[in-house]
UniProtKB/TrEMBL annotation:
Annotated InterPro entries: Dimeric_a/b-barrel, Tscrpt_reg_AsnC/Lrp_C
Official protein name in the record: AsnC family transcriptional regulator
Species, as recorded: Paremcibacter congregatus
Xref: Gene3D superfamilies: 3.30.70.920
Transcription regulator AsnC/Lrp ligand binding domain boundaries: 6-77
Coiled coil feature spans: none
Length: 80
């Protein structure tokens, strides 16, 4: 399994709707955080090794209504 973190910038007033959609519709979601800074949410996804990350983000995340922008980070090793 691969751990992927995605920072999400939402349209104004849409953070809670986007977070609810992610929790309800993306079964690969491990955690969803409201964060400060340039982005509104950060999600941790647990994807299969053979999953095409770019296609998953493009097809499943960026198409969620209320999302303006995403920034994807790949985790290589968990130390704890």
């Amino acid at each position: 399994m691969k751990n992927i973190f995605v920072q999400i910038k939402c349209e104004l007033g849409k953070v809670y709707e986007v977070a609810e959609h992610i929790v309800d519709q993306l079964e690969e979601t491990e955690e969803v955080y409201s964060i400060s800074g340039a982005f509104d949410l950060m999600i941790k996804l647990h994807l299969e090794e053979d999953e095409d990350i770019g296609r998953y983000i493009n097809d499943r995340v960026q198409t969620i209504p209320g999302i303006k922008d995403t920034f994807t980070l790949m985790a290589y090793k968990a130390f704890k």
